[in-house]
UniProtKB/TrEMBL annotation:
Keywords: Hydrolase, Membrane, Transmembrane, Transmembrane helix. It comes from the Bacteria. This is Alpha/beta hydrolase-fold protein. The keyword Membrane applies. The chain crosses the membrane at residues 12-29, 41-63. One of its GO terms (molecular function) is hydrolase activity. InterPro entries: AB_hydrolase_fold, Esterase-like, Mycobacterial_A85_antigen.
Length: 352
């Protein structure tokens, strides 16, 4: 019960602020009463730590990155889900798994990308266990930057969305692949001079998932989705590989690479050509005819720069013959926008 307690609500912040204030008052009183040296130090340290926790939770509440106590515990103690073996995702699961689905990790081998072995977070819907002969669509969820794959199952609450969809008889396998070396790495999901992330997805991740699970091995059964930098990733890779996916969910993604070190650092000497070929805002108007693709664009109304870019590219993509949905909702560049956006966009994507 404690694990499900939210740490981003106004009530939680007010209680934490009250406790912190009480701790500082106690510290000042001990000083005036000339309490023992160690008691004053202990009280001051406790008050300072509570202040740090309060400030940290204030930022956390704004971005809603770790919404529950269980998310905070997982982040602190680094407690990943159990690991599945390649090709051995069992259908003999206990009753709780058949009701709630299963969250696990899957090791993705390097099959030629040069990116190295990675670990994807995977959520299997309850129907995966109760319907052992069925095959399921897959949504590939790309994380932001800074960020890692686990973010989709903390701030993004992707497993909660998966259970909601499963109850609507819209089961989907959720895969959050590792699309960067570490939390601060920012390769923009492209084949740059240092990392070949696009090739990693195409050559390593998707084949490994198709080998390991009962997936629908067709573009109609694959969805590319992401938030922030992952939204750009979903849009860019989805448009560049329409043979692999029929649906793109772009949540608050820019329409051009935004590498912190500059495009030359990302692409090298051929930066202009490579950047243009990885900038949907540049190539959307000249897309060649291809298989029908559906795109859901979603953004917070306060996130004005991204929203302006989305409005512009929506027109370009529609003119190119693609089906485009553009949605806005109150909020900024945070998980408070991306959680409901994921639920609504996936429901739209999976409907018959």
């Amino acid at each position: 019960m404690l694990a499900g307690l939210t740490v981003v609500s106004t009530r939680f912040l007010l209680v934490l602020a009250f406790i912190t204030t009480a701790a500082w008052i106690s510290t000042l009183r001990r000083r005036r009463r000339r309490a023992s040296h160690w008691r004053r130090i202990t009280s001051a340290v406790a008050a300072a730590l509570l202040t740090l926790v309060l400030v940290a939770d204030g930022f956390n509440s704004y971005y809603s990155y770790l919404p529950n106590v269980s998310d905070v515990v997982d982040e602190v103690v680094h407690r990943p889900p159990p690991q599945l073996e390649m090709g051995r995702a069992t259908t003999k699961a206990p009753v709780p798994t058949q009701v709630r689905g299963q969250l696990a990790t899957l090791v993705i081998p390097d099959d030629g990308s040069g990116f190295g072995k990675t670990r994807a977070w995977v959520w299997l819907p309850p129907q995966y266990f109760s319907q052992p002969m069925a095959r399921f669509p897959v949504v590939y969820l790309f994380h932001g930057s800074p960020g890692m794959q686990k973010d989709w199952f903390h701030g993004g609450a992707a497993d909660v969305t998966g259970r909601f969809l499963a109850r609507q008889d819209l089961p989907v396998i959720e895969v959050a692949p590792q699309m960067s070396r570490n939390w601060l790495d920012d390769p923009e999901c492209v084949d740059g001079i240092h990392e070949r992330v696009e090739t990693h997805l195409v050559r390593d991740v998707i084949p490994a998932v198709d080998r390991s699970f009962r997936t629908i091995k067709a573009r109609s059964g694959r969805i590319f989705g992401g938030m922030s930098a992952g939204g750009y990733c979903a849009l860019n890779l989805g448009l560049r590989h329409r043979e692999l996916t029929a649906t793109i969910l772009d949540l608050s993604g820019f329409t051009a690479p935004t590498h912190a070190g500059g495009l030359k650092t990302l692409f090298g000497r051929n930066e202009s050509a490579l950047a243009a070929s990885n900038t949907p805002a540049s190539y959307a108007s000249s897309l060649e005819a291809g298989p029908q693709t559906r795109i859901w664009l979603d953004c917070g109304t306060v996130d004005r720069t991204v929203l302006h870019q989305m409005q512009s590219i929506a027109s370009l993509l529609r003119a190119a013959g693609l089906t485009v949905q553009l949605h806005t909702r109150p909020g900024d560049h945070t998980y408070s926008v991306w959680r409901p956006a994921l639920r609504e966009s996936l429901h739209w994507a999976l409907r018959p």
